[in-house]
Design a protein that fits this description.
- The chain has a single domain, classed as Rossmann fold, CATH 3.40.50.150.
- The protein is about 30% helix and about 25% strand.
- A seven-stranded mixed beta sheet has the order 8-7-6-9-10-13-12, with helices on both faces.
- A hairpin with a 2-residue loop joins strand 1 and strand 2.
Length: about 280
């Protein structure tokens, strides 16, 4: 049975929670046409991509916003590498970036002497990276043959796990590709229960506040920690909780006002980012 398979308990259809694995998730609302679920065991919230829902790949063509140049991310990612990641790594560390996008992280790590490789299921992303002189391919991370590139000192997931129906599968695969004593870095949006509860009351806000249907999981710190522990990781180092990406500036007045309202609501709710480094035990 898959992590997201429905089960029946006392006549009520429920889903297995992708974070803790319990069969206790119940529907609490609707988000962009998808059932919005809450695990009664661990509190994790997620949108159920039921059979027949639009495939994730349709959201990530060459015009996906995650592929755009972002000076804020470019600067912050270099600061994070210098202050927090390089101290964890040996000289000339081997680094795999899963969901490499336009290659900004790969480029920053390569500038600092790391041996980098990128993988993205979007061929448009892989082409962008190769156009920058970076080694990158497209494919399914769960089945991709890394041949003589593995094992890695570091595997990174920048804004990836929130998109995955079963993120524990990806983190478990990452564990198998990381050297003993090596690290994984995961960055996801922080979405508080206040935001999810607001969307349950006002479903039309789901796209703006939850980024559904492309985002499926709405993480808080305990849930992300539980997920990494299930994959075998420990030695957690929580990095600064702040937005790493710049806000979009395109669009007319209406779009800019909408962005301003969304930002204000998320700020009031305490939304932000979660960024953690975790270690594969020796």
């Amino acid at each position: 049975m898959s992590e997201a398979s429905p089960v029946v308990n006392s006549g009520v259809a429920m889903l297995r929670c992708a974070v803790c694995g319990a069969n206790t998730s119940r529907c609490i609302g609707v988000a962009t046409g998808m059932p919005l679920m809450r695990c009664l065991s661990c509190g994790h919230d997620f949108a159920w991509m039921f059979e027949g829902a639009v495939a994730l790949e349709t959201h990530y063509g060459e015009h996906y916003s995650g592929f755009r140049e972002d000076a804020v991310f470019a600067n912050k990612i270099r600061t994070i590498i210098d202050s927090s990641l390089l101290p964890l790594l040996p000289a000339g560390a081997s680094v795999l970036d899963v969901g490499c996008g336009n290659g900004e992280f790969l480029a920053a790590a390569a500038e600092r002497g790391c041996r980098t490789y990128g993988l993205d299921f979007s061929e448009a992303a892989a082409q962008m990276c190769r156009g920058r002189g970076l080694a990158a391919q497209s494919g399914d991370f769960l089945t991709f043959d890394f041949a003589d590139r593995a094992p890695f000192d570091l595997v990174t997931f920048w804004d990836v796990c929130e998109h995955l129906p079963n993120p524990v599968d990806f983190l478990t695969r990452a564990f198998s590709l990381i050297k003993p004593g090596g690290h994984v870095v995961v960055k996801v949006p922080l979405v508080t229960t206040k935001t999810v509860d607001l969307v349950c009351r006002v479903p039309r806000l789901a796209g703006a506040l939850l980024s559904t249907p492309s985002h499926l999981h709405f993480f808080r710190k305990p849930g992300l920690l539980r997920l990494l522990e299930r994959a075998g990781f420990g030695g957690f180092i929580w990095l600064p909780n702040e937005p790493l990406r710049g806000a979009g500036q395109t669009g007319g007045l209406k779009k800019k006002v909408t962005r301003g309202i969304r930002t204000a609501l998320q700020s009031l709710a305490g939304d932000g980012s979660l960024l953690v480094a975790a270690r594969r035990p020796l």
